[in-house]
Amino acid sequence: MVKNKDMKKNYGLIMLVFCCLIGCTELEHAPDGKTNGIAKLVTDIQVENTNGGAIISYNAPDDVNLAYVLGTVVLNNGQERIVASSTHSNEIVIKGIGDMAEYDVKLYSVNYNEERSEEQLIKIKPLVSQVVKISNSIIAEPGFGGIKLKWNNEDREAIALIVEVDDTLSYGQVDTTFLLADITYDSSVDGLFAVRGFENVERSWRFKVRDRYDNFSPEIVTKITPLFEEAIPREDYEIVKLRHDAPSAWGWVESNLIDGNKGSGFHTPQGWKDPDGKVSEYEEENLHMFTIDLGVQAKLSRLKFEGRGEYYYKHGNPRIFDVWAGNTLNEDGSFKDWTKVITNGTVIKPSGLPLGQQTQEDIDFQKRGFDFEFTDAGVVPFRFIRFVNKENWAGTKFLHVMEIEFFGQIVE
Description:
By secondary structure, the protein is mostly beta strands. 11% of the residues lie in helices and 40% in strands.
């Protein structure tokens, strides 16, 4: 019992010293949420108008009561936009305004009891909105089986691009009726989107851009005739084994590439060494490649492949690759008399996030399958295709691909 009493005395002494050391700090910074009054106002306020908003910078007061700075603005549609900034920042960033009108922004200093200071009225006049800026950069052109859209989004604004098509061809109507053709969600700097599945008949196309604040760009309408293409029938595909082609691993055999089943795929061995040495057209050794006989000659337009789903943008999913096409098979496995129809094809993650990180947008993009058009597409007919994996998302050369499909115009 004596020992317990001594321990209690020592504990009490320690707590007394501790309280003495921190007592004035507790009173000054009010960690229990209580403050000594309304926070002081910010000073030296500056405004930089931006696309669809503004950056309001200021000097925060040296005031222990200040918890954060608050900005509010009421938009022309009646919505109130509220933006807060901590004491570790000296600016308020307002985004997502859809017009270029002048707006009043009310700034408040807020204390730890959520009490606001008197308002400071600031005027902003946003530049052209992000949706209009992006929409103005759109280039629409004929694509195989549809249209291709390109745009610039230097600020990586999260947008939806909505593509509609005139459907009067289907119903024989006189008045134009637009139906949704496709939609993509994107935040990449250099946007690229292809809408497929249409005959090569001139149609009217309409597209518009929407942002996360539900602002819409003006609609753009244009007439475009899709380029003709057809799917090369999978039942005609056959796997061809040439020298330098990589073997399969883990039971993931080559025939899985062309069976129409996305639940199975082709996997090459990690660390595989090519027993035949380097292929003459490449300086690098041990490239992992596979060869497919299309069963027909076709003027090829593009290919589409599916990566391994549980390894989005990582492991053995192809990242950089070449594709060759030819009409004769060389016994030595070389590319003599073949044509390189894709050079350094590169899978781009829309978000641009580092390896191992991805957004839902990235995942949805992979689920759609990766489309790559051929150089000089639709000019020369070919029968054989060879896929050369130069680098996977792990930075090595092994690969796993679930499905691959080819499109073009069958010649024979």
